[in-house]
Amino acid sequence: DALPVIARKSQIPVIADIHFQPKYVFAAIEAGCAAVRVNPGNIKQFDDKVKEIAKAAKDHGTPIRIGVNAGSLDRRLLQKYGRATPEALAESALWEASLFEEHDFRDIKISVKHNDPVVMVEAYRQLAAQCDYPLHLGVTEAGPAFQGTIKSAVAFGALLSQGIGDTIRVSLSA
């Protein structure tokens, strides 16, 4: 009940970050959030919900950020690549984007997060070479303040110096 009030009264854009329950994607869209991030790897039967999500997002003018995370990659990709490789991250994001495209929805931003900045940088390079969607940069679980800041700055610097990346997020632990 509070989300519509928060989204409406906030002086900054409220972006909902949804995990596990697809019903919250719809609730965030209907609440008027500026954008909604979905993690396809941990939302139950996500691929089956894309048509409905695309329609709701389109009807409300709500951008969707497809947030692929190394820790929740589809098990088929883990079997194919053996681990969360740059190729697996990029393939997952592009696959999910293609599902939205099938329903004529392209108001998408993509992120692929990994705690290893080298893997993260290469995944974004591959994405930038294969799509024109805005890219949201982030090193997931970067670590405590000093370590996390260094890891993020190195990764962001490498990508931004090549013109890759549209928004950033720094994820630090206590």
UniProtKB/TrEMBL annotation:
GO molecular function: 4 iron, 4 sulfur cluster binding; 4-hydroxy-3-methylbut-2-en-1-yl diphosphate synthase activity (ferredoxin)
Stated name of the protein: 4-hydroxy-3-methylbut-2-en-1-yl diphosphate synthase
Domain IspG TIM-barrel: 2-173
Keywords recorded for this protein, A-Z: 4Fe-4S, Iron, Iron-sulfur, Metal-binding
Cofactor: [4Fe-4S] cluster
SUPFAM superfamilies tied to this protein: Dihydropteroate synthetase-like
A Pfam cross-reference name: GcpE
One Gene Ontology biological process: isopentenyl diphosphate biosynthetic process, methylerythritol 4-phosphate pathway
PANTHER family assigned: 4-HYDROXY-3-METHYLBUT-2-EN-1-YL DIPHOSPHATE SYNTHASE, 4-HYDROXY-3-METHYLBUT-2-EN-1-YL DIPHOSPHATE SYNTHASE (FERREDOXIN), CHLOROPLASTIC
Superkingdom field: Bacteria
Organism: Streptomyces parvulus
